[in-house]
Design a protein that fits this description.
Helices cover 26% and strands 23% of the residues. By secondary structure, it is α+β, with helices and mostly antiparallel strands. The protein has a 5-stranded antiparallel β-sheet, with no helix packed on it. Strands 1-11-10-6 form a 4-stranded antiparallel β-sheet, with no helix packed on it. The protein is elongated.
């Protein structure tokens, strides 16, 4: 006869204060389960390292901009960027007659220029403002300088054309802007023989003299002493050979102040520098900016020494 089962005693549980603690599940196995399903080798491959892509050194924005600004017409900026083919074409066309050079400069300033590998230029964000300012200043100075040179060139050409268009005139005719001059007189002999150098002598004579406020064809000259003295002279070589030239003459006013020599064109009768042989002669007018009144005309020889003088009183 079997024994009935004895009831199991129930032991009291110790009191627990605080929130219930949930059971902690077992940590998952790295192999997909609580136990490895197959033997593992000693080598465990890890993840491949991430290496940043290196695009190589980039060209400088400042260097490209300066080359484009200063030497863009010769393709220097494109040579620097490695674009040899287009650089040669730019050089041979003088920067596309300047248009190509300007386009490349603007593209560089706006950050659209890249090197031959398509890489952007280094240093553009921090230097673009400075580059724009300097470029604007250079363009402004160039425009002002070009305008000034153009005006000066036009003035020179106009003066040259006006000089070619001056008709031949008799020696020192009366000017419409000046009172009619009167002939002067010489208080000494009208001519004298002057020894210019060893074996070379000339006969120098004063034929006429006038005082005028303006020289025809040279109205741009402003007299510093009230007017101009014009003296018509003759130059005849007596022996040897001489040079007839205005630089052999000088004048002094009554106060002893030397007048300024004015070289006159041949078209208005000025004495021209010329070689004169024995028995030959030249005539012409020499002019001076000197105070009105009696003057002394001095003739110097080839050594710069005084060889003769005349006193002239123009009226």
């Amino acid at each position: 006869m079997s024994q009935p089962p004895y009831p199991q005693p129930q032991y009291p549980q110790p009191p627990h204060s605080g929130p219930a603690v949930p059971p902690v599940p077992p940590a998952p196995s790295p192999f997909g389960g609580p136990y490895p399903t197959s033997p593992q080798g000693e080598y465990q491959p890890g993840a491949y390292p991430q290496v940043p892509y290196d695009d190589g050194p980039r060209k400088s924005f400042l260097a490209t901009w300066l080359l484009s600004l200063l030497l863009g017409t010769f393709g220097a900026d494109r040579f620097y960027l490695g674009k040899t083919g287009s650089a040669v074409a730019k050089l041979l066309t003088a920067g596309g007659l300047g248009i190509w050079a300007i386009v490349d400069l603007v593209m560089t300033l706006t950050g659209n220029t890249k090197d031959i590998h398509g890489r952007p230029l280094e240093g553009y964000p921090e230097n673009k403002k400075k580059a724009w300012i300097i470029t604007a200043v250079v363009w402004l100075v160039g425009a002002v300088t070009g305008t000034v040179l153009a005006i000066a060139s036009i003035a020179v050409v106009s003066a040259a054309v006006e000089g070619f268009n001056v008709p031949a005139q008799a020696p020192l005719p009366a000017s419409q802007a000046a009172p009619a001059p009167s002939p002067g007189t010489s208080t000494e002999a009208n001519s004298s023989v002057v020894t210019m150098s060893e074996g070379n002598t000339v006969r120098v004579g004063v034929l006429d003299s006038i005082y005028t406020a303006e020289i025809p064809g040279m109205s741009y000259l402003e007299p510093k002493n009230g007017g101009f003295l014009a003296v018509q002279v003759s130059w005849e070589t007596v022996s040897g050979t001489s040079f007839a030239t205005p630089s052999n003459f000088s004048v002094f006013d009554a106060d002893g102040k030397e007048g300024e020599l004015i070289y006159l064109d041949k078209e208005i009768g000025g004495l021209q520098t010329d070689e004169v042989g024995a028995g030959d002669s030249r005539q012409g007018v020499i002019a001076f900016d000197v105070k009105e009144g009696p003057v002394t005309v001095v003739v110097t020889n080839d050594y710069g020494d005084q060889a003769s003088s005349f006193t002239v009183t123009p009226q």
